[in-house]
Amino acid sequence: MKFLHLSDLHIGKIVNGFSMLEEQRHVFSQIINYIKTECPDAVVIAGDVYDRAVPGVEAVRVFDDFLTELAKSNVAVMLISGNHDSPERLNYASRLLSDLSDNRIFLCGAFDGTVKKVVLSDNYGEVNFWLLPFIRPDNFTTDFFESAGIDYNSRNVLVSHQFYVKSGVTLERSESELNPVGGLDAIDCALIEKFDYVALGHLHGPQKIGSEHIRYSGSPVKYSFSEWRQKKSVALVELNNKGSLNIKDLPLNPLHDMREIKGELEELIKDDFVLLSDKEDYIRVILTDEEEIIDPMGKIRSVYPNVMSLDFENSRTNIDISEITSNAKQPEEIAQLSPYELFGEFFLDINGSVMSGGQAEIIGDILSTFKN
User: Fold this and answer.
1) Domain membership flag for residue 138
2) Three-class SS state of 247
3) What separation in angstroms does the CA of 50 have from each of 13, 44, 69, 208?
4) Confidence band (pLDDT; 50, 70, 90) for 65?
5) What are phi and psi of 106, to 5 degrees?
6) Is residue 131 domain-shared with residue 14, that is, in the same domain?
7) Number of domains in the chain
8) Res 14 pLDDT > 90
9) Which residue of 44, 174, 308, 315 has the fewest C-beta atoms within 10 A of its own C-beta?
10) Does any domain span residue 317?
11) What pTM was estimated for this model as a whole?
12) Which pLDDT score, from 0 to 100, does residue 182 have?
């Protein structure tokens, strides 16, 4: 039994003002090509199909196109809702589909207290896929599995969208994931270790939780700069006889990559540097210039049109705030300062350096205008 494991599509996601729909279409096309070349029996989508509970029209259209292509590929499709999805909307038409004799699409959006079971067969017999959509962590219990009467002597695959943890294992999390305070959303993965494979969604970096058979596939697209070093992929899982498991990560290449560049402005916009990579990439720029730059974003975007973020890293941004605070003047001292001296103190606190001669002259001229 071969199947593709993917999750966290987040269709309709907007990152720093940029729509990711074209990126999503691009990777969905690669997934369809993998289905044609690898010939899996099924595709499982472990939640967060959409980025928000009420997706936009274009996001729905993109998912409809993807689901239609999956159906044409003659694979079984199983999907569950994640914490970003509306369970009821994702569950739409699920009962109608389940009544069709040739149904190959299994939707599990709203959780009704029982774990939904889908059975597929291969040369080794039956494989039971258990679909468990996102549940609030405080409502999660092992009773779900016990009441399902799972026979662990058979081959079983769990599809789940939760934050599972294991003692001694550090998981990679990204800025684009919800991160409740204190780990209140964490569930012990000991509860799911008996399954032959656990197809997880929620974390955006592809990773396993201690054991090879409990895995997050990760998101197919980079959704924050905390993910820019990640290599996105889709997992191809092969279950043969009981206990035999093979996993292969199939790479997903972005239409435009997400990356970070750092240095002085003039160096970053030189042709020999720009030509090293695709200037259409989604970029976070960190400028190290010490001197003040007029309209830095405009200058950067004239070369890199898809700049998402601009930050500065220099002697002024590396100021020790505690030192400034400890040296702060008392109210009675401040009262003795002239307007020019007050602005000089303000400039020093904000920039970490005194005004240049030209800047001081400009401020002096402005203040003298107010005097007159």
Assistant:
1) yes
2) strand
3) 8, 15, 18, 23
4) very high
5) -120, 110
6) yes
7) 3
8) yes
9) 315
10) no
11) 0.81
12) 43
